[in-house]
Design goal:
single chain, mainly alpha, PurE_prokaryotes, phosphoribosylaminoimidazole carboxylase, PurE_dom, isomerase activity
């Protein structure tokens, strides 16, 4: 992430990765304030065993694109909502990459989907880890379906008037 102020957003993604039992790194790498650190981080990522990089940034949000320019690993950008433009500035910065520098981009503040996408990428590997993650993803999807079906049953049995929606 580009700043410690991004941690509250990026925490949800880290929790998903922890739940799936995969190794991951959480650190601060600023494209503007620590460019040498960013270069070292990106160029050494594969050698450190990383298979994908989730990069959260707000404002100008140059970090995901600059990291993607320095590695061939998949980079997933998380636009972080800042104090101006509700994160749309970050979204546009991350999603509008030039040809040849791909960055997969998720919704504003949605590090959960970034983590799930990273897991889906790793699950395509023909390895023990890939198979383990595939099995865990299948269970995750099944659990989500069960959660929704329980809500369907509650709504249909009690009627919409009695159904309390959590906010």
């Amino acid at each position: 992430m580009g700043s410690d102020s991004d941690l509250p957003v990026m925490k949800a993604g880290a929790e998903i990765l922890k739940k799936f039992g995969v190794e991951y790194e959480v650190t601060i790498v600023s494209a503007h304030r620590t460019p040498d650190r960013m270069t070292t981080f990106a160029k050494s990522a594969r050698d450190r065993g990383l298979r994908a990089i989730i990069s959260g940034a707000g404002g100008a949000a140059h970090l995901p694109g600059m990291v993607a320019a320095m590695t061939t690993l998949p980079v997933i950008g998380v636009p972080v909502k800042g104090s101006t433009l509700d994160g749309v500035d970050s979204l546009h910065s991350i999603v509008q990459m030039p040809r040849g520098v791909p960055v997969a981009t998720v919704a504003i503040n949605n590090s959960t989907n970034a983590a799930l996408l990273a897991l889906r990428i790793v699950s395509t590997e023909n390895s023990e880890l890939g198979r383990e993650i595939r099995d865990k993803l299948d269970k995750y999807v099944s659990d989500m379906e069960s959660e929704v079906m329980a809500k369907v049953e509650k709504l249909e049995s009690g009627g919409w008037e009695a159904y309390a929606v959590k906010k």
